[in-house]
Amino acid sequence: MTIRTPQQPAARQWKVQLPSTPRSVRLARDQAGRTLHDWGYAQEAIDRLLLVCSELATNAVRHGHERGHLFEVRLHDEGASCLVQVSDAASRRLPHCVKADEDDEHGRGLELVLALSEEVGHHPRDPIGKTVWARLVLDTPEEEPNL
User: With a threshold of 0.85, does the pTM exceed it?
Assistant: First the structure.
């Protein structure tokens, strides 16, 4: 994984902060999906982004959980790409891929994120925690019809 902070300004941004619980992963995914739909992205692009969002949010809840702390999901529309960032406020433990066996139910999330994303990275949060991000190249939003 690349260790750096994405520096490009986003044309459109969205964020949500939720309790660090498994139930919140679904809520974040649903809200992100509505946002991407409102931004005009094609369903195939939305599906790929939501898979990445869900995997990163699940990792934040599973590995960065601390009672009473929130995690945050951000989307940045960058025109030809979309940046998803998921931050936890509890752990600086860095993400890493693990070798999952055929029968394992967990351990493939970061591999999926890497396969679907153009770039992936992470950076520390102040005063504690980390942000893991992925940039996906997506179909550009559909043009508004001229009236």
Answer: no
